[in-house]
Amino acid sequence: MASRVLRAGSFIARTVPPPASVASVLSRRTFSVSARMASSFYEPGWEPEAPSVKTEIPGPKAKAAIAELDQVFDTRSLNMLTDYQKSVGNYIVDADGNVLLDVYAQIASIPLGYNNPALLKAARSDEMINGIINRPALGNFPPTDWAHVLKSGILKVAPKGLNQVFTAMAGSDANETAYKAAFMYRRQRERGGHHVEFTEEELSSSMLNQAPGAPQLSILSFKSGFHGRLFGSLSTTRSKPIHKLDIPAFDWPQATFPLLQYPLADHAAANAAAEAASLAEVEHLLLNHPLPPCAVVVEPIQSEGGDNHASPAFFRGLRALTRKHGVLLIVDEVQTGVGATGRFWAHEHWDLPHPPDMVTFSKKAQTAGYYYGDPLLRPNKPYRQFNTWMGDPARAILFRAIVDEVERLGLVESTARVGGYLYGKLEGLAGRYPGQFGNLRGKGMGTFIAFDHPKRDVFLAEAKKVGINIGGSGQSAVRLRPMLIFQEKHADLLVEGLEKVAKKLA
Description:
The longest helix is centred in the last third of the chain and has 22 residues, at 411-432. This protein folds into two domains: 20-121 and 408-505, Alpha-Beta Complex (Aspartate Aminotransferase, domain 1); 136-391, 3-Layer(aba) Sandwich (Aspartate Aminotransferase, domain 2), CATH 3.40.640. The chain starts with 19 loop residues before the first helix and ends with a helix. By secondary structure, it is α/β, with parallel strands linked by helices. It has helices at residues 20-26, 60-70, 105-108, 117-123, 126-133, 146-152, 171-191, 200-206, 241-244, 268-288, 312-324, 393-409, 411-432, 456-465, 488-505; strands spanning 91-93, 99-102, 164-168, 218-222, 254-255, 293-298, 328-332, 358-361, 368-372, 438-441, 450-452, 468-469, 471-473, 477-479.
């Protein structure tokens, strides 16, 4: 992508004062640093030099604040009570002043670090303030510049072959609306095209939740996959029972995702057989499931389910199967998208001869939705794919600023480079501490790296004590989700901290 200048607008400091910890940075020339500088993407002193743990976590101040919060809000899933005014860059700070290197990044959703200067500038623009205080119902009352906002941000980084977007609120919402598009596309095709009107039987039966107006169709997903916690998306989420318990679900098919063995070079034949078996199962379900699948939804890397990978050849085979049987392919890039794998979109690693039909996004994009290319994926009538907000202009403006900064600093390329450096360091740890960094995976996938630990939850707790905030997935995986501004110096600090934990648990 060509270099370009941030469209951030003017500052309105009196209306939105900057956090005290970053105010001084904004007065300096924070955008003059070369992307080639290894020390920092921003001026020295922007973020801490290293983690600093002063108290237990949570400490006394955090415990008191959590107790107060628990009176009005469920805190049982709380990871760390955070002071966002003091969190900067790659570092997250808690109520007691503990400073941790954050390689979990709000469940993989922070692209440029806390209190990033470029995003602070965009947030203070007249354009952003207008979007926030006059939040439009986009389907009915889009702003006059909405096409420009989309073209200069969300659509500027659209996956190859996909030139339209439906904007949404969150990842689950993006997936559910993509599923709706798939169902409507299938039925429109069966009727004979967009021009064919609905029958009276279809209209009346839909109000009774019965066929033909409410057809018996499905979305095929994979075991261990995760596609959200909303009502429809839950029927394709298969990662943990706690996500699904007590919620009625559709009887939709699931195929086995190929669980690869590591190191990959030592298990090439077994892994190829596992992928072939998975593709055969997909084809069987497409042909024989009683509720015909309209689409297959898949993550490039199964994130919540344990960071499970498959080869580019597997995904090319999946694309071939969906085209062969007239089924749409939805690639869920909610967690893998926006540069984390060393490509802007993870499916770019696959070298597909034909692009996916839809690509869903959220998290690091700070907005959500799905990309598509076929005009027939736009329903034949208004209000069929609709809700009040249909996304959020403020978040689309923020994503545009993220795209500009990713481009200006070469952060996708940087993440690819730093990921290779970090993977090599972790290979060294795996050699020195057998059994503690098992099934190390993610080579060549940027910083989207994971490994298994037999005492995973203990490992995560001990990491906090040495100043590392890190996350888990699946039953035993430790997943790394650094921000795009994560550099070699941060990788050194991370590996140093992980080695301390490994020594303690050895």
